[in-house]
Amino acid sequence: DAYLQAIESANDAINAYVTVTPEKALEMAKASDERIAAGKAGVLEGIPLGVKDLFATRDVHTQACSAVLSRFRPKYESTVTQNLWDDGAVMLGKLNMDEFAMGSSNESSHYGPVTNPWKASGSDQRLVPGGSSGGSAAAVAAHLCAGATATDTGGSIRQPAAFTGTVGIKPTYGRCSRWGIVAYASSLDQAGPIARDVRDAAILLKSMASVDDKDTTSVDIPVPDYEAALGQSLKGMRIGIPKEYRVEGMPEEIEKLWAQGVAWLKDAGAEIVDISLPHTKYALPAYYIVAPAEASSNLARYDGVRYGLRVDGKDIADMYEKTRAAGFGTEVKRRILIGTYVLSAGYYDAYYLQAQKVRTLIKRDFELAFNEVDTVLAPITPSSAFAIGDEALAADPVAMYMQDIFTVTVNMAGLPGLSVPAGLDAKGLPLGLQLIGRPFEESTLFKAAHVIE
Ligand code: GLN
Question: pTM of whole model > 0.95?
Answer without folding.
Answer: yes
